[in-house]
Amino acid sequence: MAVINAPRGTRDILPAESWKWAYIVKTASEVMRDFGFREIHLPVFEHTELFSRGVGETTDIVEKEMYTFTDRGGRSITLRPEATAGVMRCALENNLCAQGASAKLWNWGPMFRHERPQKGRYRQFCQIDAECLGLAGPMADVEVIALSLELFRRLGLKNLEVVINSVGCEKCRPVYRQKLVEYFDAHRDSLCETCLDRLGRNPLRILDCKKEGCGAIAEGAPDIFDSLCDECREHFAQVRAGLERLVFTYRLDKRLVRGLDYYTKTAYEILSGDLGAQNAVAGGGRYDNLSSAIGGAKVPGVGFACGLDRVLLVMEEQGCTFGEAPGVSVYVAALDEDSRGAVQVLTYELRKAGISAECDTAGRSFKAQVKAAGACRFACIIGPEERERNSAAVKDMKDGTQENIPLSEAAKYIREKL
Ligand code: AMP
Questions:
Q1: If 278 and its partner were Cys, which of 83, 120, 235, 263 is the partner (CB 3.0–4.6 Å)?
Q2: Residue 348 Cα, ligand 1 centroid: separation in angstroms?
Q3: CA distance 144 to 217
Q4: Beta strands in 180-256 (DSSP E)
Q5: DSSP summary character for residue 158
C-alpha cells in the first residue's frame, strides 16, 4: 500500500520551522497590543453565503478557489478563504459595534484556497489579520497601514514597498466601472479569455490581470482618481497626508484593485522585493459595505491580512533573526545503571522549576549521554558518589567549570547562572 501524503498545496510545519512561526505570532501579538487590538478566535468554517455575499460572487476566490462542501445536515459550508468576512460576522453577531461603538480585533490562523501551488502560494496558508470596525474616518486607515508596517519593522523585514489606491465607493464606482467597460470593450481584441469574461461581470479585475497583453491595455485605462466622488477624494487625500506625517513612503497604483469585492476607498498592499511572483506579504483596505452585504447594519471597517508563510520566506531570505532558538538547558546523565532513578527525579524537579531539562529514556550508555549533553548549557551527572551525598555534579558547558551541588539546590544554582 502506498504511503498517504499530505494533500497538494498543504505542508507540515516541522519543529525546525515552528519556533520561527511562534516568534512571528508573538511579535504580532505585541504589536497588536501596542496598537490597541484585541485577539479573537473564529471558526475555520462558515456558511458559504458569508463569503459569496461578502467577498463577492464574481471574485476568483468565490468562483474558483473555495473549499465548499455540504455537511451532514445538508448545509453548504466553506473553509474560510480569508478572515475579514468572518470577523465582521462575529462583530455583528456579538453586537460589538452596536450604537456606534468601535472594535479593534486581530486573529491568526489557517485560510484555505484552491489555487495552483507554487513558492509562497499554498492551499492552506496562515494569515495574521487585524480589523478596525466601526470607524469611518481616514485616521483608521492610516493606523492599520502603520500597524502592518510596524509589524514588519519589528520583524526586521527590509526592501518592502507600500502600494496604495482608492477603489471608490458605491456612489462613484459605478461611474468608473462604466468608463472601464467602454474602454476595454474598445480593446477587446487584445484581452485574454478571462478578462473578456470579466468585462461583463467584474471589469475592475481586468486592471490587475498579470498577462502582458491585458497589462499593456490596462496601463492606458481611465484613471480611477478622475472618477472619485468628493468624499472618496478627500478621504484618500487624508490617508495620504497621514502616511506622510508618519514618514512612510508609498507608491500610488491605479491598477491595484485587489481580488475581493468588499473593498471601498483605500486599498493597499505591501510588496517584498525578495519573493518572486507571489510578492505580496500583506494586503488590506477599507470595506464600508461588507456589513450590509452580509445582512447587518452599516458598520464601516478597515483592516489587513499578512501571509505568515510568505513573511517567513522573506525573513529567511533576508537573514532575519527569530529570537532565541529553542534548546534544552540541562542534560541530566546517569553514570551507572543504579543512578537512572535519581536522574529521572532531578530532571523532573528541574522541569517543575521551569528549567528545560532532558535525560536518557532509551537506556543509552554514559558515553552517549555525555555526547547528548554537549548540546545543552549544563550537564548534571549523578553516579554512586553523588547518590551517596544527595548531590549532582553540575558542569557549566560554557566555561567548563564543575561543582558538586546538593540536589535540593540544583534548580536554584542553575537558574542563577542561566
Ligand atoms: P488576500 O486575502 O488575498 O488579500 O491576501 C493577504 C495576504 O495573504 C497576501 O498578501 C499573502 O501574503 C497571503 N496569501 C494570500 N493567498 C495566499 C496563498 N495561497 N498562500 C500563501 N499566502 C497567501
A1: 120
A2: 43
A3: 32
A4: 251-252
A5: -
Which CATH architecture does the domain made up of 15-172+228-317 adopt?
Answer: 2-Layer Sandwich (3.30)
Nearest-CA residue for ligand 1 atom 16 is: 121
The Cβ-side half-sphere exposure at 113, using a 13 Å CA radius, reads 24
Task: For ligand 1, say whether the CB of 82 is within 6 Å of any of its atoms.
Answer: yes
pLDDT digits (tens, 9 = 90+) for 38-96: 999 999 999 999 999 999 888 889 989 999 999 999 999 999 999 999 999 999 999 99
Q: Which atom of ligand 1 is nearest to the CA of 117?
A: 19
Is any atom of ligand 1 closer than 6 Å to the C-beta of 304? no
Grid cell 492599520 — which residue? 144
The CB of 272 under 6 Å from ligand 1? The reply is no
Q: Measure 312 CA to ligand 1 centroid, in angstroms.
A: 13
- Ligand 1 touching residue 187 (CB < 6 A): no
Pairing of β 402-406 and β 280-286:
unpaired
pLDDT digits (tens, 9 = 90+) for 5-41: 999 999 999 999 999 999 999 999 999 999 999 999 9
Which mean pLDDT values do the consecutive 10-residue runs of the chain (418 residues) have?
96 96 98 98 98 90 95 98 98 94 97 96 98 98 98 96 95 92 92 90 88 89 94 98 96 87 93 87 96 95 97 96 94 97 98 97 96 96 97 95 96 95
Cα-only R_g, the chain: 28
If you measure from the C-alpha of residue 299 to the centroid of ligand 1, how many angstroms do you get, rounded to a whole number?
24
The domain defined by 330-417 folds into: Rossmann fold (3.40.50)
Please tell me the pTM assigned to this model. 0.93
Domain boundaries along the sequence of the chain: 15-172+228-317, 330-417
Burial of 13: CB neighbours in 10 Å, binned 0-12, 13-18, 19+: middle
Query: How far, in Å, from the CA of 138 to the mean position of ligand 1?
Result: 24
Say yes or no: CB of residue 121 within 6 Å of ligand 1.
Answer: yes
